Amino acid sequence: MRAHRALLLLAALAAGCAAPPAAVRRTRNVVLVTLDGARTQEVFGGVDLDVLRAVTAREDPKVKVEDTPAHGRYWAPTAEERRRKLLPFLWGTLLAEHGAIAGNRALGNVARVTNRHRFSYPGYAEILTGEAQDELIKSNDKVQSPSPTVLEHLRRKLGLDAKGVAAFCSWDVLDAIVEHERGAITANAGFEPYEHPDPEVRLLSRLQLETQTPWDAVRHDAYTFRFALVHLKTHRPRVLYIGLGETDDWSHDGRYDRYLQALERSDRFLKELWETLESTEEYRGRTSLVITTDHGRGDTPADWKDHGEKVEGAQFIWIAAAGPDIERRGEIKEQGLVHQSQVAATLCALLGIDYLAERPAAGKPIAWLLE
Ligand SMILES: [Zn+2]
After folding, report:
1. pTM over 0.85
2. Number of domain units in the chain
3. Distance, CA 71 to ligand 1 centroid (Å)?
4. How many other C-beta atoms are found inside a 10 Å radius of the C-beta of residue 69?
5. CATH number for the domain including 40?
6. Ligand 1 centre distance from Cα of residue 128 (Å)
7. Distance 187 CA to ligand 1 centre (A)
8. Per the domain annotation, does 336 fall within a domain?
9. Which H or E run includes 274?
10. Within-domain flag for 19
11. Rounded distance from Cα 115 to ligand 1 centre (Å)
């Protein structure tokens, strides 16, 4: 396979193309996954002992951090061991065998948001349009995306119907963020039912209302993920976006233990997603996965719960990718900087589409990730 690709590349270079042409790419489908407000600290370093100690002391000063269930489950002496305990599929399989991740600040490899707000809508807008829109989007109010998103762009460029591009999200505001023109794509978010003839899916649509979360606008990620998987199996979308939300909400509530559990659960979803893709004819070997977050959070035990313009650390994110056209670099150790605004063009580039041709102000594809 490698030799075959090298030949294609040589042929293309001989034909006068300076950059590897789209024809060399094997990606036919892309899946974008976001974990809302998942910090670089946990993604690269596993459980943060300072935060766990502070949270434990506040709850009950008599309890030693070493005696907490979270310590027992997630602690290990090195960052590498800790992150593998928390995110075993991401680190053990996905990045080790199929992909790369940018954003480990400890190595001088920085990924950050371009927008100044450092909260959700501005972050998702930057991911999904390729541009920070500081003046247009300055709240989390549920307003329709002011401009077309990369999801709509891909639908048009690939000539797909509305089922061929789908977004399933836990936070209901994402229903409005993912598309400029309502109904352009399949959008399912918040406590919205997913219309499907299967009785089990209809049951899930009802159950999500009966298994309330502490939050009015965010359903449990389990429903979001199940609906996305059903849509994948039923309609075979070429572009799928899964927006998981619990990591952010448990953090705001100060539940560090639940935040860690949500991260671990998200990792299990990634495993099931990847295994489903790899066992499905249309997806196997020609689907690329991009995983990132809308914003970071505070760096210290005093502000890890928060994010926003004035919170130091909330500007830092991470961007991972896996698939047939992604460099198998694991953790990117090179010093440098990438931006959230580059995700949209990266998704397009994987499909051989030049996003900047129509959106010249968007961030460029991330060279570190692309083969
Ligand atoms: Zn958020």
Report:
1. yes
2. 1
3. 26
4. 10
5. 3.40.720.10
6. 14
7. 18
8. yes
9. helix 256-278
10. no
11. 13
